[in-house]
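Hi, here's the filled form for the chain we discussed.

Project: internal
Contact: R.S.
Residues: 690
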Amino acid sequence: TKQKNNLATMADSGVPQETTALLGGDKNETDKGIRGDKIRPNLSSSVTARASFRNSWHTPIDLNDEPKSERRGQLAKSYSVNANGTASYLSPVEMGRHELYDMVPFAAVFGMQKKERAMSQAFASFAGDLDAMEADQLEFKKSRTHLSDSELEKRRSHASVLLLDELEFDAVMVTSPLIIAVAMASMLQFLLGYNIGVMNAPASVVFPGHSSGSWALAVAAFAIGGPFGAMAAGKLADSQGRKGAFLIDMWIFLVGGLLQTLALDMYMIIAARFIVGFGSGSASVLVPIYLGELAPPNLRGMFGTLTQFALVIGILASDLVAFPLATEEKWRYLFSITPITSMLLLLFSPFLLESPRWLLGQDRSSRKARYIIKLLRGLRYDHEVETEVSHFVSASQNQHCDGSCENDTVNSGVAFTEMLMTPKVRTLLISCLILQMGQQLCGINAVFYYSTSFFEGVIDNPLLGTTIVGAVNVVATYVALLLMDSCGRRTLILWSSGGMFLCCVVIVLSLLGYFQNIVALLAVNVYVSFFEIGLGPIPWLIVAEMFDAKYVTTAMAACSQLNWVCNFVVGFVFPYLNEYLGPYSFVPFAMVLALTFIFAALKLPETQGTTPEELMDQLVKKNSSVVYHNMNIEDAHNNPIDLEWKLAMEQLKQEDEAAMESGSYNYGFKPIEGVQPPASGSDWQSGMGH
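And the returned structure, exactly as it came back:
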């Protein structure tokens, strides 16, 4: 009923009368369409089972002649009609980008490239099937024979490849404003990593004679400020904009870094660490959100990977600069890198762009948002910008539980309540929270916070051992990136927790004297490597993969809060474990890892929706009520403006040739109408004289 009620409105808005007939005005013409449950079974079984497809042209097709649209020189443009009768005029490529925006969350997460590529492949296959069905129907209308199986497969494969190339073009189309945004966001992550490791080396040279408790509190104060910063970042990002929140975070790093550099006693160090931790917690929230909202969907995973590398490089940098600076005379220079970097970021901050998603959330007619989208995507035409705006608005609505993109903070509360009330989602949330606890309570930050003191008495130069661990951490992050493309998430968690458990056992045995001290160093490095391939990235990645896009931001916020709390526990407690348990200090971590392994083996589900086949099924279910028209991908592969211009020029040429044949063509010799010729030659000559 809604579909028929919309016919008059669509006709008034410029939809051809023949199209409205195909949508419901002409029963006989509508019956010529192909529905998914009536298609021959030689195509994709998922499409055959559930997809709805109907082929039509802008004018009725004569079975004994070519389409009138072609005779009139008109382009049959692709569009789709939803169940409520609303039409969407998007090309197949634009439809694919629309699906990517809807299904990929607005967050730059390490390792999400696999899902992005699978999503592009799934839609390319889905649209290729529709294109093949259309070609088969058109062939049947013309010759009363169907295309052969080989012809259908060739058509489908060709269309899928063309569309996939177009969808993946965004992955290589990186503009200067986007590069600047990624570079500055990566520097914030660098500061986060740097301040994780900067307290490792100078423990004995900063205000010598301090107690173990005061130093442990100074280290752990970083994790106390973290959750407060993460909590405040969301509110600041909503009220001040993503760029405004970024600027505030840079100032926080600057103030905390200066206070730490110029500290007069341990109390000032503790206060400075709290402020720097606050800024680090804010950065951990702002960076993935900001880059996720600026980047196209198929670049969000890559940008998340870059920022993760920036974090681990920051940890390594803090170890390297400690060689010349971790002394009683120069330790302030070690801390000064944070305010210097913050100052540089503030100097380059005018080049940062505001998030177009946030601007559109404030005002959907925002001209500034459209200008920024034009810069970020390298677009030239207004209609391309408007299409991109529609992608942003639609995805924002679909990724929010209340259908609004105006207030993310309120929405997070609604989403969290809904997650707790839904049994399946609640189970996934509990799984993610348990993994976050396992990630921190496994003791990884005990290594990054205290490895120098831990290696004292184990190797001759403890700082060298710490630096080796930092370098292994960077290499292991790259290895993890390769493994995540080929291994299941649950499998990686099992290997990671199991391998770390064995390393803890070896570390304890080495400290008890059963192995040489060098074995303890090797075990710590292997321990860090196993962490990076599983428990490091996977607890964050599965949030983006296991939850619907509308729950991702809320789930990440909850996980971030718990992660920082557990981080504080490890940072504060480990010095006491090392003091009272001695060689058995890694036993509590081994127990946590054993419990994590058991949980992953018995309860943790493997992430779904990460293969092209699974995503194809999701697309079919999602669009089962949508009717697609004119899905000719090969024709749509060309620029529609160029095609229309070519047709217009051909039409003008034909009109000129016809006028020449009839003798009515104006070669430019006829007098201009309305202009009188001069009365005499003398007048003409006199006019020339003047």
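Let me know if anything looks off before we file it.
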